[in-house]
Amino acid sequence: MANILKTSILSSLGDLNSSLEAIKKSQTGISTRAIRAIEGDVEMPYYTLAKSVEDTQEGIYPELKKVVAELLSGVSQEDKKQTIIIIGTSIIDWHVIDAIESSNYKYKRKVYASQKRSIDSYAKDLSDEFELNGFTLTINTACTSSVNAILEASNLIDAGIYKYGIVLGLEIYSQMMSSGFYAMQLLSQTTIKPFDIKRGGTILGEAVAGVLLGDDKSQWQIKGGSSNCNGVSITAVSRDGDEFVEMMHNALKTSKTSVEEITAIKAHATGTDSNDISEINAISKVFDKSVVFTALKPYVGHTVGACGALEIALFMACIDDGFLPKTLNHADPILKDYQPILENKECTHGTFMLNFFGFGGNNTSLILKKEFS
């Protein structure tokens, strides 16, 4: 499989260095945002970008350019011609949302005028601006969007079709998305409490995250992974977590990795009732109670389509800095003997499972390995 050569992010905590420093200090990027509901606007916790992007159609493009420019630093002009861009996001076209709202809701947010532009247009514009290969793709598989983009880019590189792949995870405030989460009673009014008895839901977040893949030498190798769509409803899998079990076993098999080789797990850990119980039941069926696992969403929120690229970049940065980050806001485990780490744990290398389990049964497990240096 391909290697991860470089990462670059913008989260509610700032850039990669700022985000890492905040995680080391147990700081979060939580703020608030008004979410539209039937009863009117409701002020809810929200992880907004450190640099506010109010005009989500145009305002985010400069940030995407910065991330891509940082990832391409050191890549020759010749190699750029062999570089592709894949975007992973849960949001495709804001103007379509505007049209729906104008047609179906009593309130009028603004006059709709089609500009025939979507997030996939960003990929094409970036490819043209940086004089890349021209191959672009946008993947929308809910919470697994950008991790599936990483798997797709890795497959294309492994096949020798392209030399480098830039994967961008992008999630910006969406009125439709946030209102939907609120209506389904999936949002917490306080904090994200992964795998805790008193968990009350997730909190949404914004992010731009970039990952550069290639077959150049790197300490970070993608050993393998697996993705499928297997759910019992549009929002969840079964509470016993067997769909997650299948995914973890498939990832271990494709990467030729044994359970005993896994140093730690980065859990999906949304803090919602159904997802957390399904995931912890699945972990207990694959790993014994000595397993080390943690969660990152309490720091940066649930960035949905961007969480694959964002959480991979943050997890790698923590390991490169010598530690596994502790799980914030956890007190009482929902499953006895299976508790995420509550203190930062020394770790400089190893083999890691990173799980992303989302809406509609879109489930992905990725196995990364960092060599001892």
Helix content: 25-40%
Q: Provide the CATH superfamily.
A: Thiolase/Chalcone synthase
Query: Multimeric state of these chains?
Result: single chain
Distance between the termini: 20 Å
**Main sheet?**
11 strands, mixed
Query: Which structural class is indicated by helix and strand composition?
Result: alpha/beta
Write a structural description.
- The chain has a single domain, classed as Thiolase/Chalcone synthase (Peroxisomal Thiolase, Chain A, domain 1), CATH 3.40.47.10.
- A hairpin with a 2-residue loop joins strand 3 and strand 4 (40-46).
- It has helices at 16-24, 61-72, 77-80, 94-104, 119-129, 145-158, 175-183, 242-254, 273-286, 297-300, 307-320, and strands at 3-11, 14-15, 31-37, 40-46, 83-88, 136-139, 164-171, 207-214, 220-229, 262-266, 293-294, 323-324, 345-346, 350-357, 362-370.
- The protein is globular and about 55 Å long.
- The protein is of the alpha/beta class and 373 residues long.
